[in-house]
């Protein structure tokens, strides 16, 4: 798994590539919470290049939303059976808004 963090339009974007499973979950979680430490207005977790998303990764998404300060928006970008499907099936999208693209997430945050 590879994780990169970038800043764009006032948002912090954590982009993940590869699998999020028991082996890689701690790295994923560490990167997400490091991004939250900077108190961004918007945290975008981009999972569009993720091939496998285990339940431990879903837990990190919910934990990010519940531990972020109320003024910080946390959203997820995922579009595909390996990511958006488990997010929807488990109801994680009720806690963390789900978008198909980073552009969609940034647009929604601005409007």
Automatic annotation (TrEMBL):
<protein>
    <recommendedName>
        <fullName>Anti-sigma factor antagonist</fullName>
    </recommendedName>
</protein>
<comment type="similarity">
    <text>Belongs to the anti-sigma-factor antagonist family.</text>
</comment>
<dbReference type="InterPro" id="IPR002645">
    <property type="entry name" value="STAS_dom"/>
</dbReference>
<dbReference type="Pfam" id="PF01740">
    <property type="entry name" value="STAS"/>
</dbReference>
<dbReference type="GO" id="GO:0043856">
    <property type="term" value="F:anti-sigma factor antagonist activity"/>
</dbReference>
<dbReference type="InterPro" id="IPR003658">
    <property type="entry name" value="Anti-sigma_ant"/>
</dbReference>
<feature type="domain" description="STAS">
    <location>
        <begin position="1"/>
        <end position="109"/>
    </location>
</feature>
<dbReference type="InterPro" id="IPR036513">
    <property type="entry name" value="STAS_dom_sf"/>
</dbReference>
